[in-house]
Each structure stands twice: as structure tokens, then as C-alpha cells.
Design a protein that fits this description.
single chain, alpha/beta, D-Maltodextrin-Binding Protein, domain 2, four-stranded mixed beta sheet
């Protein structure tokens, strides 16, 4: 039993590889044969659209000169890139190259899912770059950036701003003059300044401007400071006192306002230049000096670059190294300079006449001098998370800057401690290992005893067995394996520090979950979320189904229109609804103001309103399913039953209660169970509409809380235990619901 955990890990990883092989075989069959000599190198990246086009151009050029090399580019949003790469790397797969910001280096290096570059490249290769473009962690090199910067600056529209503000007093004065209600309808049509001010990355430069920094060199948080308090108060004053920024403004809203010339200035990074070129005549400048301190804000300066998957080996590793050299070469960086005005990291590219004569890049280099390097320690994620919630509480008016600063420090320290905690195996762990060993031995003995019977049945019914084999394999890979694997992880100390050498520890995480008061708070919100949604889904669905089932003009058109919410991808629909809930520009508030004379509702910046916005969105997305199910049940009811009831003098309401409800009950009850499970576990709407639990992590339901614990704070064992508790809750509900409604007898 001593090595049982290593055997289990081997089995699980083998199953993941098997799953990937099955997936690749299916692709091979579907798309046709591919040359056996061709090598595909996958690159996962998070570049914006114009940057993606430039990357594709240089990759096409590489493929032309390297016969047999195929480069596959896959875009993923930054958080999705991190979480998906962790999952893929755990199973021994994933892309050969991953391109992203430097702060992912620390966690990936500790997990052991990227390769140290020191043994793959010579020192002369690293020496050709600026020092901050080669990302080091724990005395090793893990990433090489194809540019430097990735930092914030003030970007202004030259048609509106002749000279950028030098300090915050000038910023406020200029912002007030450029914030206008152009049509006198009480709604601001043009803002002086916009930016994604609710996110920590866009906030922390101001802490530096007030004389301090949010993290020290060792990675410890530094948030309970006067500088943090003053920065909290300053940003809130820009919105509430001086009113030069929108009340609600995420990244996409700010970007859209600036590109459509409805904002004179925006705080954004050098990555956005390609998006603005050709749309706005823009200039760049340093963030304005804090007037009361005389200090400049200190934006975080980092690099975006390439790391190599730890599982890349053999000939493919050789080609991956060669491709990485090409993608970071002066030639490619100069291509990005011409297309996107990016700041190169190559010393040779920096000395090129095109770069030396580029006014924008010269200004950018001057801005970079005032920044501070991006920390790459994994603790940064915990600090961001703690700061984000307290900062948003200040903006929402529920906390004062002083208490928020103290609480953000406490939360950061607590989360860092939890993130780095490694629970050592004890007696429970040994018991679980022994139990698993007995189960495995028992399964082997049962299979061995029944092998002759199975072989006889297989010979007699070979064709039938071959036909069910794909379905059996699919269930094993897609359903049974993930469930068993998740159960094992919930009993382990799988975390950031034990990513590749975890061990079974028993029921520690289950106890942690059940003893945490936050679990019950989130569970309560999840139950409310589910009850309200399913109630409206069923009632609206049945009502509309009854309506459509009647003889109506344009019946087919009406039915098609009502199915649209179900047909639209949830991702697109949720983001659209988020835009509609914007306080200044959203159509929801415009309708409420025009027809009901209501003042704008802070849909996205107040906890109850944000949770309500998520519920409204999910109701709209979910009722068509219940409507279609109910409509199918209604169309199976014989018309003679309604005719007979009319003869007996039954009213429409009596017909509905005595005929319609009982007759559609057999189809609606299973739909209600499915709808409850789907809604209880629906992360898409909550995550997208509330932007990951905003404000202040008060709109989480259990499934989004699981995601945050696993991929934001690297608490995989805790997240797995919580997901198993969710499974138990839903299983108990289904069994209880089926018994009370006597569903088995009905079906």
C-alpha cells in the first residue's frame, strides 16, 4: 500500500492521455489523413485582434521556409488561458508554446508545467534582450518576451486634448471641461476620462503615486498603508465628487467610448495601440503626477512572452525551440513595430533606425522609466483578489478607505497562507490508500472471475459488443473518469505546491468547507438563485406554451422569436446583457427612465442589484427550454378532453388545473429536475454578467466559488471537495423530488 498513490496518479494520467488520443483519432478520421512527416506546433496566446493578425503573418512566413512544420494558433482570454493550460498540462498535454503575461511564470514554474530555458538556449541568446524581457524565477529563466511594457499610460484624443494634463489637478479641471451632456437629456454623452478603474491592475499605479507600493520584494502584501487609503479615496472622488469618469466602466465599455470619441482620455496599455490605430488620432503621456504628493504614479511594467510546455520533448522540442528563437527575433519584432508600434525587447531591434525614429516608441520608453517591474511570485494572485474586493467595497460606498485597507491586508495574508499550505498525510490518508487498494483488488478479482463468461458472451454477440463499445468508452472517459478523479482529488493535498506530487490526506478539505461560514452564505445565495430562476422558467415556459398552442396569427414567427434566447450562445447573450445593464448607457436604465421616470439603477456596482441582473439574464436565457418541453406535452393532449370538459361547464382555469397540468406533468417533472441541476451549476451567466463575482465577490454562487478557489487561488483539493458537496446536495434533491412527486411511477 505504500506506493498506491503513485500507481493511482499513473492510472489517472494514463487515462487523460487516452482521452487525448481518442480525441486526436476522431479529428484524424473527420478531417482526413495528414502527412506523417508533418509536425504541428500549437501556440496558445491571448493577443488582441490586430496582434493576432500580425502573429499569423509571421507564422505563415515561418511555415513557408520550414516545410513540414504547421503552426496552430489558439486564442484564449487571459484567465481561460491560465486555467486551461493548468488542466491540460496536468494530463501531459497542452500547447508546445504558451504566450502570456509574465505574472503567470511563478505559478507555472512551481507547478512544474513549463520548462526552464537555461538548458535549451545559450547565454548569448538571452544576452540579446533587455534584462526585463527575460523572466527569472527561483534563479532560473522561464520566459522570453518579444516586447517590453505591457504597462498603463494616459492615452488621449488629439482632436479633444491639445496638451495632456501634467498633474491630477489639471486632470480634474480638464476632465470637467470635457465631460458633457451634449443633448441636455440628463445623460452624459462624453466623458473626460475613462478606464477599467474597478480592477486592481488599473488601480495600483495610484498607490505608488501616493508614496508607497502594494507588495514588497519578497512577495508580501503591503496594503494597510496610508497610500492605499488615499488612492482609494482619490479614485472614488474622480467618480462621485468630480464626476469626470463613468459610474460603471469595465474594459470593453471604456474601449468603446474612446474609440467612438465619446471619451477624451483613457488609461490603457500599449497593447491597445493596434486597436486604436486608424480609428482615433491619439497621443500618449505619463499618468499625471499626484498634486498633493508631487509623485508620479508607478504603472506595472512587464513583458508578454513565450514559455515552453514541460511535456514537449524529442524532435518536437527541437522545432519548438527553433520557432521560439524566430518569434523573438529582431526581424519579427520589427514587423510588430511596423504593424502595431510595440516596444521591442531585442537590443538589435531597439537600435534599428525605424525604432530610433519612432516618436511614439520614444515617448513610451520615457513612460516605462517611471514604472515598477511586475512581480512574478504566485502570491500576487492572492493579493489581487484581496485588494479587488475591498477596493470595490469602497467604490460601492459600503466601506471607508481606512477599514478597507486594513481588511485587504488581512485577507491577502490569510489567502497567501492558505494558498501555500501543504497538508501532510496522516492516518486518514493511509486508511484511504488502503481502502482504494482493496477496491482496486476487488475490481480485478471480479473481472478475473467473470472473464470466461464475458469472453463467451463476446464471442456469441461480437457485433453487439462492438456497437456499444464507443458509447461505453465515451461514458468512461467523459463521465466516470472525471467523477472518480475529482473524488480522489477531494481527498488529497493537491495544490499549488504539490501540483505533481500530491498525496491522499483524507477528509480534511470537506471539514474545511463545512466549517467555513462563507460556504453557507454562498449556498444560501445559490438556493435563492436556483429557486427564483427555475420558478420563472417553469411558469413563463408553461404560460407561453399554452399561448402558442392556441390558434394565433403569426404563430410560427412568434414561436421562433421566443426560442431565440435558447438558440443564442450563452457567452454572447450574457455579455450583451451586461452591456444593457450599464448605469449610464445601458438600455435597461434608459427604458426605466423613459417609461417609468426612474433614476438610474446601479446594476453592476451594488451587490443586490448585480445579483438581480444575473437572475434576470438567466431567466431570459432559460424559459425557452421549459416552453418547448411544455409545448410538446400540450400537443399530446387529446382535444376531446377539453371539448368534454366544456360540455360539463368547466371554465378555462378549471381546464388548466384539471387537464393541462396533470397531462403535462410527466414531461415537466424531468425538465424541472434538469433545469434545477443546470441552473444550480450555471457559471456562465454569473461569471460574465457580474465579471467574476463583482462587486466585492458578493454575487458568487457555489460553482463560481469553486472556479475561483481552483484557478485563482490554486486550492484544487478544496475546490474538488466543494464540488463533491455540490454533487451530494443535488443528488439528495433529485432523490427527494422524485419520491415526493412519484416521478418513477408517472414515467
Amino acid at each position: 500500500m505504500k506506493n498506491i498513490i503513485k500507481i493511482l496518479q499513473y492510472i489517472f494520467r494514463s487515462l487523460i492521455v487516452t482521452k487525448n488520443i481518442v480525441f486526436l483519432i476522431s479529428i484524424f478520421i473527420f478531417f482526413g489523413c495528414q502527412s506523417s512527416n508533418e509536425i504541428t506546433i500549437n501556440i496558445w496566446h491571448q493577443m488582441l485582434y490586430e496582434n493576432r493578425k500580425a502573429l499569423r503573418e509571421v507564422c505563415d512566413k515561418y511555415e513557408e521556409s520550414h516545410t513540414g512544420i504547421n503552426i496552430n494558433l489558439i486564442y484564449r482570454e487571459t484567465e481561460e488561458l491560465r486555467s486551461n493550460f493548468q488542466s491540460a498540462a496536468l494530463g501531459g498535454s497542452g500547447p508546445e508554446l504558451i504566450y502570456g503575461p509574465s505574472d503567470q511564470v511563478g505559478p507555472f514554474a512551481i507547478m512544474g508545467i513549463i520548462k526552464p530555458l537555461d538548458d535549451l538556449f545559450s547565454l548569448s541568446y538571452f544576452d540579446q534582450f533587455l534584462s526585463n524581457a527575460v523572466v527569472k524565477f527561483d534563479k532560473k529563466r522561464w520566459m522570453v518576451g518579444d516586447g517590453v511594457g505591457n504597462h498603463l499610460m494616459l492615452i488621449y484624443n488629439k482632436n479633444m486634448v491639445s496638451s495632456p494634463p501634467k498633474d491630477t489637478d489639471e486632470l480634474i479641471q480638464l476632465g470637467k471641461s470635457l465631460t458633457k451632456d451634449l443633448d441636455d437629456d440628463g445623460v452624459i454623452d462624453q466623458f473626460g476620462l475613462v478606464w477599467n478603474f474597478t480592477e486592481p491592475f488599473f488601480y495600483v499605479p495610484w498607490i505608488g503615486g501616493f508614496g508607497d507600493w502594494f507588495i514588497d520584494e519578497s512577495g508580501k502584501p503591503h496594503l494597510d498603508t496610508e497610500s492605499n487609503e488615499n488612492a482609494f479615496a482619490f479614485i472614488k472622488s474622480l467618480r462621485d465628487k468630480h464626476k469626470i469618469i463613468p459610474k460603471e466602466c469595465d474594459y470593453e465599455t471604456a474601449n468603446a467610448l474612446f474609440k467612438t470619441e465619446r471619451a477624451a482620455m483613457i488609461i490603457n496599455g500599449d497593447w491597445s495601440w493596434g486597436d486604436y490605430m486608424g480609428k482615433v488620432d491619439f497621443g500618449i503621456a505619463k499618468l499625471p503626477r499626484i498634486s498633493v504628493t508631487g509623485e508620479l504614479p508607478t504603472p506595472i511594467v512587464s513583458t508578454k512572452g513565450y514559455s515552453i510546455n514541460a511535456h514537449t520533448k524529442g524532435e518536437k522540442l527541437h522545432h519548438t525551440v527553433d520557432l521560439m528563437k524566430y518569434l523573438t527575433s529582431p526581424e519579427v519584432q520589427l514587423h510588430y513595430v511596423r504593424r502595431l508600434n510595440t516596444q521591442p525587447s531585442s537590443l538589435a531591434a531597439l537600435d534599428h533606425p525605424e525604432v530610433q525614429s519612432n516618436v511614439l516608441l520614444k515617448q513610451n520608453a520615457d513612460i516605462i522609466k517611471n514604472g515598477k517591474p511586475m512581480p512574478v511570485v504566485p502570491e500576487l494572485r492572492a493579493i489581487w483578489d484581496a485588494l479587488r474586493g475591498e477596493y470595490q467595497s469602497v467604490l460601492a460606498g459600503t466601506k471607508e478607505p481606512h477599514s478597507a485597507a486594513i481588511e485587504s491586508q488581512r485577507k491577502a495574508e490569510e489567502q497567501i497562507k492558505t494558498m501555500n499550505l501543504v497538508v501532510q498525510p496522516g492516518s486518514q490518508g493511509k486508511f484511504i490508500k488502503g481502502l482504494l487498494g482493496l477496491i482496486i483488488v476487488g475490481i480485478i478479482l471480479v473481472l478475473w472471475k467473470t472473464k470466461e463468461k464475458f469472453l463467451f458472451a463476446f464471442r456469441e454477440n461480437k457485433f453487439a459488443y462492438l456497437m456499444i463499445l464507443p458509447a461505453f468508452a465515451g461514458i468512461m472517459i467523459v463521465v466516470l473518469f472525471p467523477f472518480v478523479y475529482n473524488l480522489i482529488i477531494s481527498l488529497s493535498n493537491f495544490s499549488l505546491r504539490t501540483f505533481k506530487n500530491w498525496d491522499l490526506i483524507g477528509f480534511y478539505h470537506f471539514g474545511t468547507v463545512l466549517s467555513d461560514i462563507r460556504f453557507y452564505s454562498v449556498l444560501g445565495k445559490t438556493i435563492i438563485w436556483t429557486l427564483i430562476n427555475v420558478s420563472f422558467h417553469v411558469s413563463l415556459g408553461v404560460f407561453l406554451a399554452v399561448l402558442i398552442n392556441r390558434t394565433l396569427p403569426a404563430k410560427k414567427t412568434l414561436r421562433t422569436l421566443l426560442i431565440i434566447p435558447w438558440a443564442l450562445p450563452q457567452y454572447i447573450a450574457a455579455l450583451t446583457w451586461r452591456g444593457m445593464f450599464n448605469q449610464e448607457y445601458g438600455s435597461i436604465n434608459l427604458i426605466l427612465n423613459k417609461f417609468f421616470n426612474m433614476s438610474p439603477v446601479q446594476w453592476l456596482s451594488q451587490p443586490i442589484e448585480a445579483f438581480s441582473a444575473c437572475i434576470i439574464t438567466n431567466i431570459w436565457l432559460g424559459f425557452p427550454f421549459m416552453m418547448v418541453v411544455a409545448l410538446g406535452g400540450l400537443q399530446s393532449i387529446p382535444k376531446e378532453m377539453y371539448e368534454a370538459s366544456q360540455v360539463d361547464g368547466a371554465s378555462r382555469w378549471q381546464q388548466f388545473c384539471k387537464i393541462t397540468i396533470p397531462m403535462i406533468k410527466p414531461v415537466m417533472l424531468p425538465a424541472i429536475i434538469l433545469g434545477t441541476v443546470w441552473t444550480f451549476n450555471n457559471i456562465n451567466v454569473v461569471w460574465l454578467v457580474s465579471n467574476g463575482g463583482e462587486p466585492s465577490d458578493l454575487t458568487h454562487i457555489l460553482v463560481s466559488y469553486v472556479y475561483k478557489a481552483a484557478f485563482n487561488l490554486y486550492r484544487y483539493g478544496y475546490a474538488a471537495a466543494l464540488s463533491m458537496i455540490i454533487f451530494i446536495i443535488l443528488s439528495a434533491f433529485m432523490v427527494s423530488f422524485m419520491r415526493k412527486t412519484k416521478l418513477e411511477a408517472i414515467v
